[in-house]
From TrEMBL:
This is Peptidase A1 domain-containing protein. Keywords: Aspartyl protease, Glycoprotein, Hydrolase, Protease, Signal. One of its GO terms (molecular function) is aspartic-type endopeptidase activity. Residues 106-460 form the Peptidase A1 domain. InterPro entries: Aspartic_peptidase_A1, Pepsin-like_plant, PEPTIDASE_A1, Peptidase_aspartic_dom_sf, Plant_Aspart_Prot_A1, TAXi_C, TAXi_N. Residues 39-58 are annotated as: Disordered. Belongs to the peptidase A1 family. One of its GO terms (biological process) is proteolysis. The active site is at 124, 343. Gene3D superfamilies: Acid Proteases. It holds the Pfam family TAXi_C.
Amino acid sequence: MERNISLVSLLCFIIFNGCLVFEADAVKSQRSEKLKLIHRHSPELGHNPGTTLGPPKNSEERLKQLVQSDKARLHAIKRRLGVVGKANDWVEFPFRSAADMGIGQYFVSLRMGTPAKTFTLLVDTGSCLTWFKCKYMCVDCSSVEEGQRYFYPNQSRSFKSIPCSSQECKTIDKASTLVTCPHPNAPCYYDYSYLDGLNVGGSYFNETVKFRFSNGQKKGLEMTMGCTDGLNQKNRFKTVDGILALGLNPLSFAVKAAHEFGGKFSFCLENHWIIKSESSYLVFGAEDQVPNMQFTDLLTEESKMTSLYPIKVTGISVNGTMLDIPSYVWDMTDRGAGGMIVDSGTTVTHLVEQAFEKVIAAFEPSLSMYNKTKGNLDYCFNAPPDGEFDETRVPRVALHFEGGAKLEPAVNGYIFDDSKGVKCLGFTRLAWPQMNIMGNLLMQNHLWEFDLANKKVGFARSKCMLD
């Protein structure tokens, strides 16, 4: 999700510059907190989040929804050109993957306030402001639209407004914080406008978020977030209550929580195409060592896009043969050209034309028995249904990263059902110069760990089963 650069720094939804202060206990055990991530098409939601439509009627409608939402996110990403963690408790939240609606890719349940209430938030890995639909200082706080849910600050004993006259307000984010200050105790206001048309306005606040450990114990941490009382396109948030920010920025929810719980966070992306009742986990902190975890460095020094997760690709291979892709394609510049970002908020993997053409050329001999046809993606072909489609004919793709790590996605990570009798390759072409984006479908069936303290990202094949 992206904000208009005239209002804020791109893709950095700042939570606050008021630093959190965490006091470590004398002795801390290894525990975990999990947020529930809910698949967008899960029966648990009843209908598509943020819309009034029912679930997609078929695979063509489903893929079309994913591709359309990717377009908005890609437009935002291409417009925008460290945390020292400490060993601590680790916490985990059940969650399920969700199709990107331009704001986030996952749903989580978060308990906040005193007494604590549960809110459902979209997870956005490319932003830094966690905000809630909110009713604060309203004339008639009981007047709400049907189906809308809100956070009511006046009902929480731990809610703390940020005065517009405070130093905290002045150091939050000059680009997005409004200078409006009618009187010293008035709230510190913000206004965000996103490139996909979403606009949110409201005031910053401090509030207690409840973390539940795996051993049943609880802990509350004061976090700085946004109370959004001005929101256009409200129908997009009918089934969710706001956004949980996981961007790579010291002000994001992920960075602050990781700082308290071990300097890292992780999540397991289950098979996107299978709707299950089980959940995977969003984990803050260091869990038990995962076998076969591979790591590569986060290129935070090379990139000015501090809210994203850039990594260095060394090449792409198909059936074990490295493709002849120019090396400059993987070199990230400060102008946003080249390189690759890991973005769980994008569905399909986007490759610049120099890489895209080589990948397609490597696939075509094996798929030549199928006629090319039009679909929602750039390369689609006529093929029999899954029960008759021979996956052994599909070439195996691998992405190679600096340091020797190699991602070998499952076939369903890059061959998608588009409509009856039509399948598509899960790659889209980008004109040069732009950056490459690894989407969540290529990441699925893997556990991903973002080690912010050591500036690394790791992954390991996993079935994402609950313990």
